[in-house]
Amino acid sequence: MSDIKEIIAALLKFRNERDWEQFHNSKDLAVALNIEAGELLESFLWKSHEEASKEKVQEELADVFAYAFLLADKYNLDVKDIVLDKIRKNGEKYPVEKAKGTAKKYNEL
Amino acid sequence: MSDIKEIIAALLKFRNERDWEQFHNSKDLAVALNIEAGELLESFLWKSHEEASKEKVQEELADVFAYAFLLADKYNLDVKDIVLDKIRKNGEKYPVEKAKGTAKKYNEL
Amino acid sequence: MSDIKEIIAALLKFRNERDWEQFHNSKDLAVALNIEAGELLESFLWKSHEEASKEKVQEELADVFAYAFLLADKYNLDVKDIVLDKIRKNGEKYPVEKAKGTAKKYNEL
Amino acid sequence: MSDIKEIIAALLKFRNERDWEQFHNSKDLAVALNIEAGELLESFLWKSHEEASKEKVQEELADVFAYAFLLADKYNLDVKDIVLDKIRKNGEKYPVEKAKGTAKKYNEL
C-alpha cells in the first residue's frame, strides 16, 4: 500500500470509530482546513521565519494534511495525480524563461 | 520511491528550475498555504456542499497540497510520521467512548 | 469624533501602552487578521449557521475588526470611503438586472 | 447617523437591491470573510511589508470590512461596543507591566 493510501486509511479508521462521517461533508472539511491553516500561520505571527517553533509547525501542519487528505478521499481524487497535473499546468503559466528568479504572478510576467 | 517523495521531488524540481527557493521561506509558504486554503473554500461559498464544482476543488486542493508538502520538506518532516503521530494524540483527546457521534471539541466533552 | 476614529484611537492607545507598534507591520497585521478570521470561522465548524454561539462570534469578530482597523490606520485609509468606493465598483460588476437573485460570480453572469 | 451605521445601511441597500439576503446566512458570511482575508494576505506574499501595493490592500481590506459589518449586522452587534469590550478583556490578559515590549502570547507571559 502506498504511503498516501496508508495515511488516508488511518484517518478514515479514526473517523469511523467515532462515527464522525456524518459531520465530514466537503464544505465543513474545507472550513476545517482553513481553520488549521490559520493555526499553522499563527506559528509565524510577529516573527521572522527563523523564529517559529518547529514543534508547533509540525502539529498544525499535520492537521492541515489530515483535512486535505480527507477532502481528497471525499472527492476520490488521487493526490499524486492532482499535484503532478497542477505542476504541469503551472509550467505553462510560469515558463522557465519568463519566471526564473521573479516572484511575479503569471498575469504580471 | 514513495508517492510522497515523488511529489516533493517534482515540486522541488519545478521550484529550482525557476530559482524560486529564495522566496520560499517557511513564513511565506504558510502564507501561501492560507491563500490557497481560502481559494479552496471559495468553491463552497453561498452553496451547499453538493453544489461545489469538483474541478475547482481539485485545482485548489492541489495548490494546498503543494505548499503543505513544501513546508514539510522545509522542516524535514516526514508527512506520514507527523499525521500518524497526530492521530495518536487525537485519540487521547477524543477517546471513542466520549467522542462517538458528537462534534464537540475535546475541551467540551 | 466619529465612532470609527474613536475605535482606532482606543486600539492605538492599547498598543502604544504596550510598546507593540514595533511588531505591527502591515504584513503581520494581515497575518493576524487571517488567524482571527479562522477563529471566527471555527464558530461554525460542523454546524449549521443557527447553531453557532453568538458569544463566540462576538469575541472573534471583535478581533477581526481590531486588526482590520489597525491595518486601515497603518495605510491611512478612511474605512467609510474605501467601503463605499468598493460598493460603487461592485455595483458595476454586479448590475441589479443581471445579479438579482443569483449567487454567481461576476465573471459567470 | 454614525459612520458605521451609514456603512452598514449602504451594504444592506446594495444587498437588498440584488435580493442576496437569501445567501447571506452567518456561516457563509464568515466563509466569505475568510476568503477576502486570504486575498488581502496575497498582497504580502513573497514580499516584505513595504513592498505591498497600497491599492490592492485597500481593495481587499474594503471587502473584509464589508463582510465583517454584514456579520455584525446579522447578529445585531454594535461594532464599537464589541471592540471596546474586547480591548478591556485584552487589558486583563495582557497587563502593561507584563506585556510591554514583548510579542509573547498571554499564556506564555
UniProtKB/TrEMBL annotation, chains A, B, C, D:
Q: Name one GO biological process term.
A: nucleoside triphosphate catabolic process
Q: Which GO terms describe its molecular function?
A: nucleoside triphosphate diphosphatase activity
- For this entry, the protein name equals NTP pyrophosphatase, house-cleaning of non-canonical NTPs
Q: Whose protein is this, by species?
A: Arenibacter nanhaiticus
Taxonomic lineage of the native organism: Bacteria, Pseudomonadati, Bacteroidota, Flavobacteriia, Flavobacteriales
